[in-house]
Amino acid sequence: MTGVVLCGGQSSRMGTDKGLINHENESWAKLAFDKLSTLNIPVFLSVNKDQSELYKKIFPEASLIIDNESLQVKGPLLGLLSASLLFPGEDIFILACDMPLMDSITLKQLRAAAVSNQQYDAFVFKNENEAEPLCGIYTYSGLNIILDMYRSQQLVKHSMKFVLEHINSISIPLEEEQKKFFSNFNTHAELNGL
User: What is the reported pLDDT for 187?
Assistant: First the structure.
């Protein structure tokens, strides 16, 4: 299993690179990186080409996955599939950088679910009735299905929720006290609650 922090968004609503916003004296990208690292798996940061030079100044170049430009895909799915092509045969545990309140115990819970339920292609949490696809484990078999859909032009939406509907995924209900960990911040106004 390989961990991937998704940092490659455009951050258009925030107006600044969300992965580089600081919380408790660490960038959001580093906070997510450290939390995934508690699982004792190799962890990488997914960035787009425009971010790569800036991230190389902060993180070791070997820890960066730059979006694969041959993929005609957008959004977080581009980061996930770029990682999958780089690490064929690996399960990928993704975590969006803009969930700075995430805790490592919740990540360990998801990993334990994946270890004990190997018949599924993806493991995510469910908040009320909505899947939380940006903190999830996508197995290599599930990733192969997604890549096959892409290659056969059946990937008609680049939405992570669309992908979850087309592979054998399981959604684990969040406990009430876990819901805050999935708060995601997209504007400066929302940072006031952080």
Answer: 54
- Span 77-92, mean pLDDT? 96
Instruction: Annotate 76-116 with three-state secondary structure.
Output: HHHHHHHHHHHCCCCCEEEEECCCCCCCHHHHHHHHHHHHH
Name the nearest CA neighbour of 147 among 167, 172, 132: 167
Contact 185, 132 (CB under 8 A): no
Q: How far apart are CA 185 and CA 194, in angstroms?
A: 9
Structural domains of the chain, ranges and CATH numbers in brackets: 2-193 (3.90.550.10)
Q: Give the confidence band of 191 by pLDDT, cuts at 50, 70, 90.
A: low
Buried b (16+ CB within 10 A) or exposed e, 80-111: bbbbbebbeebbbbbbbbbbbebeeebbebbb
For residue 12, what pLDDT band results from cuts at 50, 70 and 90?
very low
Whether this prediction's pTM lies above 0.70 is answered by yes
Task: Say if residues 142 and 168 touch (Cβ distance below 8 Å).
Answer: yes
